[in-house]
Amino acid sequence: MTATLPRPDELVWPVPRMRIKRRGVLLTLLLAAIVVIAALVELASGPYFIPLADVAQVVVGGGDRIDRVTVLDWRMPRVLVGLGVGVALGAAGAITQSLARNPLASPDLLGVSMGASAAAVTMLVLLPAGLVIGGVTIGTLGAAFLGGILVSVVITALAYRGGLESMRLVLIGVGVNALATAVISLMLVQSRLAQAADVVSWLTGSLEARTWGQVVPLWITIGVGMSLIALAAFDFRVTHLGDAVSRALGVPIRTTLLLLWIPAVVMTAATVAAAGPITFVALAAPQLARLLYRSPTPPVIGSALVAAALVLYADLLARYALGSAPVGIVTSALGAPFLLVLLIRVNRKVTV
């Protein structure tokens, strides 16, 4: 008895499909709700309290004139800058840690934030009126943005050797961080008393007195950056398997690295330009998101939501428990112990 083979048109070919885990979707919705609650509380609270129902009316276009001015002109820019800073730092941290395959490779420790801060401080001390180039005035915010971009280019040029090697990237970042810190110290020594006060205020990282002038550039940068990250999303998932597997699957590694690394560092520079250096958020949020999602690598969207929640709730804590302290002080106080724990975990993995 001979077996008959099926005709080609009778064969059923398996079609690969993306699996969406229900737990991940529910967790994302929960984190989004937590962020929305924090934003509403920020909009409602202050010297002039506005009930949440009235805040909701203002947001959808209603409410009386006083409530609209208070919410839209005074409080909304602060909330949107805080939300944008969190989203940008969380996504940037997830990208840099994943590309370097190192939980310590956050924009904070790689020198991007401190480089942007050094450029802003230099502008505050040496050129407080701004720098005019071709009829365009570059102020403190522009200097911070350009400084972050310049530092990221230097770090990439020094660290890239056919790929972003983890330890090399971190060591170069630490060196750049130290150099930027030295520049800031030099500017403080050279500054007058009033300038020194402005420098210290900038370096703490604050959401106080934010305006729509900081909101719009920040969110434009986030929109462009997240779009580029989305374009490289599939290749990004493949790079987690290693360079050899990525090449075997036809993934353009260099192009993927650029599509991911550039928006990560640009968004980081934009956050420093908008609010100053709010430290440790880009370090802690991706690792917290990785634990929550039970993912082998930090999820970008989850990291962005966790970071946004961290920034907004840290701002609430700074405003009402610490007498309107800058939000950067709270994130630093919470992030320093987290960094110590992370260093201990990394050291155990290396020595075992």
Automatic annotation (TrEMBL):
InterPro entries: ABC_BtuC-like, ABC_transptr_permease_BtuC. Coiled coil: none annotated. It is a multi-pass membrane protein. Keywords: Cell membrane, Membrane, Transmembrane, Transmembrane helix, Transport. SUPFAM superfamilies: ABC transporter involved in vitamin B12 uptake, BtuC. The keyword Repressor does not apply. It comes from the Bacteria. It is found in: Cell membrane. It holds the Pfam family FecCD. GO terms for molecular function: transmembrane transporter activity. Its main location: membrane. GO terms for biological process: siderophore-iron import into cell. Gene3D superfamilies: ABC transporter involved in vitamin B12 uptake, BtuC (1.10.3470.10). Signal peptide: none annotated. One of its GO terms (cellular component) is plasma membrane. The keyword Transmembrane helix applies. Belongs to the binding-protein-dependent transport system permease family. FecCD subfamily. This is Iron chelate uptake ABC transporter family permease subunit. It comes from Gordonia polyisoprenivorans. The lineage of its organism: Bacteria, Bacillati, Actinomycetota, Actinomycetes, Mycobacteriales.
